[in-house]
Write a structure and sequence with these properties.
With 473 residues, this protein is of the alpha/beta class. Helices cover 42% and strands 16% of the residues.
Length: 473
């Protein structure tokens, strides 16, 4: 079985060959933990989780190392720390903010069915590695000290721009460079900068300060994956300047032709046909999707499945319709595979699709064929392989009742969860036993208004009336 992956560096889809088959190494840029992660952040987490699972299948779980970092030093974090913990020392305040927001992120991605990476290093725990790389760059003539800053000397790297493939003018515009008098060249970027009393800082050979953004990933990938590794991933927005600058730092510090052999990037995400923006009112976090988006709390498995319907390199339009359709398909499949154990092997057609540059739409099409052919054990194995358990209890949506419905139900903030549906179903059964038809109809109509269909039948074992329920399709 041949895995073929598109490489941003070469602009080709090539057969993947690891440096060491017994030590396959992947690094993916993780979140900056200052607030809840948005749905766009979910895309690389899910996509590279699929790749992690596939690599473990091909090379053995014990032979794959996956690193996804946590950026916990950033100006947005500083601002939140100053707002939320004004009385604490700055380093302690940012630690509180990042611990809280990282816990939120970990809970959200776990709900999306993502495996834990092998390592999740925090930037602030790897300051010594950053300083060591900066010292190497200075010694090799690729960085210089100026006005309390240390800067990377871009003209010293003839290969700069190889990843982004942009002209100097395009890179200048794209980087939105900070014009500073201490720079030798406008393109030079910060490796280390001084910190004021209100900013986080650490001791360094260049004084009290903090790292630039780009040096963090060079340091953490070096620490866990060595000077050169197999795959570096992230969103398409990171190609320039972040990944270009990472590549330049690492190659120049360690005298390597490449930092990673494969660079992989997922496409942009829009919401309902528009760029996601707080100003447009369409900014949505993973937590909001899970708890209440468009009046519904969506299960993590449905969010994951909807995300896989687009090829990872292409843009994706995140819509309520698409999410609802993904949920309905999973619900239908969950009914079919209920009580069926997974096959021992994942079907070859599903693996072939995933080995073709993570072609998840093609893999899903193969799963539809498995369902149509009633190959339910193989369908379950396929769902498990892409991180979806496919259990009905995991797919129950939480629906938020509107004010009138809440008043009818006698609750001030009612939620239609699986437990709530069962409770209302049993209350209706009790009303039917006592011939309270008005109350039985009221509960039926209440649930129907929120997409839940009740089906009455006589229990063959007891002869008593009984009821099942499902979401409307």
């Amino acid at each position: 079985m041949t895995l073929r992956l598109y490489n941003t560096l070469t602009r080709r889809k090539d057969p993947f060959t690891p440096i060491e088959p017994a030590n396959v190494r992947m690094y993916v840029c993780g979140p900056t933990v200052y607030d809840f992660a948005h749905v766009g952040n979910a895309r690389p987490v899910i996509i590279f989780d699929i790749l992690f699972r596939l690599l473990r299948h091909l090379y053995g779980a014990e032979h794959v190392t996956y690193v996804r970092n946590i950026t916990d030093v950033d100006d947005k974090i500083n601002a939140r720390a100053a707002r939320d913990y004004p009385g604490l020392p700055v380093n302690e305040a940012i630690k509180k903010v990042t611990e809280e927001t990282n816990a939120q992120f970990q809970a959200d991605v776990a709900a999306l069915g993502c495996l834990e990476p092998t390592h999740q290093p925090r930037a602030t725990e790897h300051i010594p590695e950053m300083i060591a790389i900066i010292e190497r760059l200075i010694a090799r003539g690729h960085a210089y000290v100026a006005d309390g800053h240390v800067l990377f000397d871009v003209p010293s790297d003839p290969s700069y721009g190889a990843l982004a493939r942009r002209s100097r003018d395009e890179m200048l515009a794209g980087a939105r460079v900070d014009v500073a008098p201490y720079k030798r060249d406008p393109m030079d970027f910060v490796l280390w900068k001084p910190s004021s009393a209100s900013e986080p800082g650490w001791d360094s050979p260049w004084g009290w300060g903090r790292p630039g953004w780009h040096i963090e990933c060079s340091a953490m990938s070096w620490r866990y994956l060595d000077e050169q590794f197999d795959i570096h991933g992230g969103g398409i927005d990171l190609v320039f300047p972040h990944h270009e600058n990472e590549r330049a730092q690492s190659c120049c510090a360690f005298d390597k032709p490449v930092m990673a052999n494969w660079w992989m990037h997922n496409g942009f995400l829009q919401v309902e046909g528009q760029k996601m923006s707080k100003s447009l009112g369409n900014f949505v976090t993973i937590r909001e999707l899970r708890e209440n988006w468009q009046g519904i709390g969506w299960p993590g498995e449905a969010i994951r499945f909807a995300m896989l319907h687009s090829l990872y390199r292409e843009p994706i339009d995140w819509t309520l319709k698409g999410l609802d359709e993904a949920h309905k398909v999973l619900w239908k499949w969950a009914e079919a595979i209920e009580g069926v154990g997974p096959a021992e092997e994942v079907p070859q057609e599903v693996l072939d699709a995933l080995c073709d540059d993570l072609n998840t739409p093609k893999a899903i099409a193969a799963m539809h064929e498995l369902y149509r052919d009633k190959r339910f054990a193989e369908l379950r194995a396929s769902l498990n392989f892409v991180g979806i358990a496919g259990r009905r209890d995991r797919l129950t949506r939480v629906q938020h009742l509107d004010a009138s419905a809440a008043a009818v139900s006698g609750a001030t903030a009612a939620l239609v969860s699986a437990n709530e549906i069962e409770r209302l179903k049993n209350e209706r059964l009790e009303a039917r036993r006592h011939k309270n038809w008005a109350e039985a109809d009221r509960i039926r109509d209440l649930l129907a208004a929120h997409g839940i269909v009740l089906k009455d039948f006589k229990n063959p074992e007891t002869g008593e009336p009984d009821t099942s329920w499902e979401f409307a399709r």
